[in-house]
Amino acid sequence: MTHERASSRRTTRQLALVLDAVQASGIEHPTADRVFRHVRRVLPTISLGTVYRNLQRLVADGRISAAPLGARVVRYDPTPTPHDHFVCQDCGRIEDITVSRSSGGVRAARRAGHEVSSHALVLYGRCRTCRGARRLSE
Amino acid sequence: MTHERASSRRTTRQLALVLDAVQASGIEHPTADRVFRHVRRVLPTISLGTVYRNLQRLVADGRISAAPLGARVVRYDPTPTPHDHFVCQDCGRIEDITVSRSSGGVRAARRAGHEVSSHALVLYGRCRTCRGARRLSE
DNA sequence: CTCGGTGCAAAGGGTTTGCATACAT
DNA sequence: ATGTATGCAAACCCTTTGCACCGAG
Predict the structure, then answer these.
(1) Residue B106: its chain A contacts at CB < 8 A?
(2) How confident is the model at residue B32 (pLDDT cuts 50, 70, 90)?
(3) pLDDT at position B107
(4) Residues of B in contact with A108 (CB under 8 A)
């Protein structure tokens, strides 16, 4: 039993290219639209709808992950395993953060009687690069 | 200098009622639409646009806070100071969590050279009440 | 009397979906 | 041949905005 697989059926060029785009270095934590524009350079006929459908499928299949960072747009991440993020409020760069262990919040929730199964942590601040730039410009 | 205040000019019935709705017990972390429907019971002519404008203003004035929980909708919170949330994946209830100390993620980010100024933490799981219900039904 | 706030309705941005067709199996 | 994935465009959902009127100060 539990043969792992879930949705994946056919392998299409579109699916492969969408996965490639999310995993492409140079595009970090892309939005669906960014993936769309990237794939279109290679396959000009692909549609936005198809990009969304394939992104959903890749997430469902555990091949990538979706992170509702910021507010409105979903960001896609080539790393499928749970992890957190740091967002630079100057340059907008998003970096993966490896949190070693459950944070203080988990303890607080457990104390309140809740059972915590997962979490989403986003840190905001100024990244290493922007801190350096700021130092230089003053 | 820094005399705190920012936008607030005129006091309207609409503004007061929107604030009341967010602070009303029984409505927890309401969405803009929920606030709209609540206020409309008292002031049937209020418009959704006005609700959004007043919510924005209250947030800007530091009288309430906005939390981009889940994915699509913004939730409003009567507590204006920074804090975190627990979301029950069974009943949907959202509870404020008081995190005593900066989590492990902050340390990881600092180690990477970033300057962390704020964060957003959302814990997912099963709340105290739902855990009890589950126990009873099995 | 002023000009900021309101109501209305249309516009916007991101994401989803219905449908006929194309294509992987 | 069979039915899933695609492309297209319309629909959706939440939120924002333009504009003329209203009303707090």
Answers:
(1) 123
(2) very high
(3) 86
(4) 97-100
* Alpha carbon distance B67, B99 (integer Å): 16
Each residue of B101-113: pLDDT tens digit?
Answer: 666 778 889 999 9
Specify the pLDDT at position B78.
97
Which residues have CB under 8 Å from A67's CB, separation 6+? Answer: A29, A74, A75, A76, A77, A85, A120
More confident position, B68 or B86: B86
A116/B108 Cβ within 8 A:
no
**Distance between CA atoms of residues B106 and B112, nearest Å:** 10
Say yes or no for a CB contact (<8 Å) between B88 and A113.
no
Decide: residue B58, CB within 10 A, 0-12 exposed, 13-18 middle, 19+ buried.
Answer: buried
